[in-house]
Structure formats: structure tokens, C-alpha cells
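@channel sequence for tomorrow's demo:
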Amino acid sequence: MLRFPWWKIIIIIVPCLWGAYSVTPHFFYSKVEKYNDVQAQMLLDQPVDDQALLIAENSWYPWAPSRIVNLGLDLRGGAHVLVEVSLEEVYSERLSSYWPDIRKSLRTIRNSVGSIKQVSGGINELLIEIGAQEGLLEAIDLVVKEARSIGVGGLEVSSKGENVIKISLGENERKKIDNQTMEQSLEIIRRRVDEAGTREPTIQRQGERRILIQVPGLGSAEELLSLIGKTARLTFHPVKKNKVSCNKKVNLETIILPSSEDRASCLSLQKKSVVSGSELTNAQPSFDQNNRPAVSFQFNPVGGRKFGEYTKENIGNPFAIVLDSEVISAPVIQSHIPGGAGIITGSFTVDESNRLAILLRAGALPASIRVLEQRTVGPELGADSIKSGKIAAIIAGSLILLFMALTYGLFGLFANIGLIINIALIFSIMATMSATLTLPGIAGIVLTIGMAVDANVLIFERIKEELKVNKSIFRAIELGYEKALTSIIDANVTTFIAAIILFTLGSGPIRGFSVTLGIGIITSVFTAVFLTRLIVSIYIGFARPKELEV
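C-alpha cells (generated this afternoon):
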């Protein structure tokens, strides 16, 4: 067990070297952060001040690793907002979009139902009043048939009073709409916050209709609310001319908008849109007939009718999909698209098609939000927390290293090497994952350090026991690692299961704790069981001690 083949040595050494290499930016955190901010601005084609560019160039090296662990709201300061999405607005909007088609259908039996008009109703109600009471059942049957013919599922049609038809969304349909609306709201908010150039915001759904937004480094909660209070607007426009100058003069019927694919040029579009995102019900990543990534979409009945009529009359012409005054795609209409369903093709990758689908869904069915909680965390509090954390880490780390060295001698020094590599691996993995470090996350790291030390203590105590029964040094070390392995694995597996449960069921700080705990468990087992064993094996192989003091 102490003899390692060369391939095992490589498997153990390479992650350790990677961890030591990747953790180096954290020793120059502020410099690397400035460098990363400028690089992010340049990547988004945002203007960069010459002085800021010069500072960034002198702060860090382009060839050196630059990934760092992001600091959370409690460590950096920033804005915290909890909002609630008004899902009921979407119910009303969805039902109202069905009214024109239902009215048109009821007009075919006007002799039986008499007058037809929409009357005010509840949140999840579309009420239609007819003039003739005796035609109520016939009208209900016709509405049900009309809903099926236009592909609208999940509608519940019944009578309310003597001459009123009640149309409402079923429970399954409401749940579907709720999930779509929350996903769309999350994406809209994420886009708004990202456009502001903030660092690693936390945007999470909480419960059925609430969204938590935490933006480290932002000045105030009011500033955050001004960012997310806008409404994403999605529209579909006829294309008048491709690749025109962005400074070209336009008339009252034309708009010039930039393209996300080619920022050097703009597109000339008809100002009046064909359909809008409010009429879009769904968009999903898919593949075209040539098995290339694409995006399929679906309009509601009203939007589907308008879209079908337009595509029938404009085969071979391009049309633009505009999101927040930017053309995200300008496909050519290949054929008539009836029923409101279509597919967008282009030079997409799988990730790009998925992203486009999310953006399309994000523009559909926007709902207003209500602020439930808002607060601003000052940077001074975070700075004090970081300072206190550094002092505590230095004191605790020094005491642990000293204890291990004094208690277990040379083997304690081996354990200390493993412990240092363990911490480097934790930060390197978190940086690679773009994870955010919070105060609970620091607690998770501290806990894993204790578990890593505990694993080494178990191993060394087992080695002591084997030496007492007159085992050879080589055999005692071998048995020590073998017999301690089961206890180490059992303890860490149970803790890892707890971390998974906390991550799955928890939110916010609890998730931050579970992430660092889970990563730390994996790295501590790796360093305690494999790295220290390799170090011990190398020592025994070269030194060949006749006595061993553990």
C-alpha cells in the first residue's frame, strides 16, 4: 500500500500543483479584482477609461491565473432586495388574449345567444355576458370547441348566473404559467443586474413567487431597485435593410438598431412590430432538420394568427427579433408558419440556442414586482468581518499547525503540508466554480479543516497502536492507513450527505455553508488519505528509519 506506481503519483501530484498555482491570485486580491473588472468590460465591448486600463495592466499578468473567489454581501457590502412577482397579472393577460377569438366564434351563433360582451370579473376569470339565456349551453359548448381548435389547453368553461359564461385557467395551467413567469422574471432581473457590470450577484427564487437579489459592491438598495424595475420588451419587426450605418438618419416609420451578432453595423427595421413578447407563450432549444441547434417558439392564439398571416405574405424576407432595443436574431422566413409555432435557425451552438430560448421566454408575459424587503449593507461591516476573519484564521491555523507538529513530530509536519494544500484546493475549486464566499461559507471551511486534522489524527493513532504490538515500521504504517480508512470514509460520507441536503433544501447563507463544506470534505479526504500517504511513502523509501516516533 505504501508503494505507489508512477501513474498514481501523477494523479495525486497534479491536483496539488494545480491548487497551489490557482490559489496565488488570492494573495493579491485587490489587484486581480481590478484586472478582472477591466477584462470583463472589454469582453462586453463597454468603454474603458484609459487610466483604469493602465492600472489594470500594471495590476496583474495576462499569463497568470486570474480566477478568484467572489466575496458575498456580508463580506463586501452591497444591496439586498426581496421582491414578489404578481402572478395574477399574467392570468388576466393570458385570459384577455383569448377574448378576440372567442368573441369571433360566438358571433357565428348570434341568433341563438344574442348580444355578446365582456364584463368585469375576478383575477382568474374571463366573463362573457350573452343576451339570450336559452343559448347559454350552446355558447359554452362552442367556447370549449373553440379552445380546442386554437390549441388552448387547461381552460375551465362553466356558467355563472343565468346568462354569463365563466372562463378560467385550470390548476395545472396556472402552475405552468407560474413557472414560466418566474423563470422569465429571473432572467430579466439577471440581465438588468449584469448590464450594470456588478460582480457575481446572487439571484434566487424563493418559494412560489419570491425572488431574492443580492448584489455585492452596489451602493444602495435604491440603486438596485432602479436596475430591476425596468420591463424587458421583446418585439418582432420586418427588416428593411441589413448592415446600415448606426448613424443613418431615419424617418418616422423606421428605426435603426444594433445587432448582437455584429456590433459594427446596425439593421434598419420597420418601426411598427408584427408581434410582441407579450404574445409569446414558450420557447425551447431544439434542432432543425439538419440536426443543427435551433430555437422553437410558440405564440398564443392572437399572436399566432398575426404571425401566421405575416409569414404567409413575406416568404423569403428577413424579420428581426428585438430584445431591449437590440437585434438578437434576424432569420429569413422560409415558409408560411401557421398556428403560431416556428423555429429560428442560424449559426448557433447548443449553449447559444439555449440562451436564446431563455431570452425569448424572458421577454414574454412580464409581471410587475412588489418589494417586500430591502436593505443596504455598508462596506465597513464587510471590511471588519474580513479583518476579523483573517486574524482568527491566522491564530487558529497557527495553533493547529503547532499542535500537530508538537504532538506527532515529523508526521505532524506531513499532515500540516496536507492541510495547507487542502485549503489551497478549496479556494481554487471555489474560484473555478465562480462560487461566492460568505461568513457561513467561512464557517464551512473551518469545519472542513477540523475534519482534515481529525482524519490525520485517526491515521497516526492507528499507526501508534500497530507499533506497540511490535509491528515493523513499514507494516505499522500500512495497517494504520488501512484500518483508519473505514472510519474516515464513514464520517466524511455522512457529513457530505448532510451538505447535499442543506444545499438542496436550503437557500442563501445555508447554501453557501453547504458548498464550502461539500468541497472541503472531498479535498480533506484526498489530502489526508492520498497526499499524506504519498509523502510518508517517499520519506520511508529514502530515509529508511529504524525507529519511528509518531
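heads up for whoever presents: The chain has 15 helices and 19 strands.
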